[in-house]
Design a protein that fits this description.
four-stranded mixed sheet, 116 residues, 16% helix, two-stranded parallel sheet, 2 domains, alpha/beta, Rossmann fold
């Protein structure tokens, strides 16, 4: 089986638009878009080798870090609403290593582990 990409979008209308775009680009068989709370990920399908969050969170959500596979990587903008740092979280067995890759600005992550 090839790679499977899962995208989680909070707003149904944005999920619909993403599905249409992905299908039009020819990736509909490999990319699934769901409506849900991306701040908590998809624990039932974990572990994930890679997680990319394209919205800023006040901190890297514990739920996402817990879903990383061994040698997995999470990239997430972390900080305040108007300025964040791009953070890389890597899991190596029981060890979790975090590194900062510089300032950035993203829209706020909404959900249980994001901004209200």
């Amino acid at each position: 089986m090839g790679s499977h990409v899962l995208g989680i979008e909070r707003l149904p209308e944005l999920a619909d638009a993403a599905r249409e775009r992905i299908t039009a680009l020819g990736f509909g068989d490999r990319v699934e878009i769901r409506v849900g709370d991306g701040s908590v990920g998809a624990p039932g399908e974990a572990p994930w080798p890679r997680i990319i969050v394209a919205a800023a969170a006040p901190a890297a959500p514990d739920a996402l870090v817990a879903q990383l596979a061994d040698s997995g990587r999470l990239v997430i903008p972390v900080g305040g609403r108007w300025e964040q740092d791009l953070i890389l979280v890597e899991r190596h067995g029981a060890d979790v290593i975090t590194s900062n890759h510089g300032p950035c600005v993203f829209v706020p992550l909404r959900g249980a582990a994001g901004w209200a």
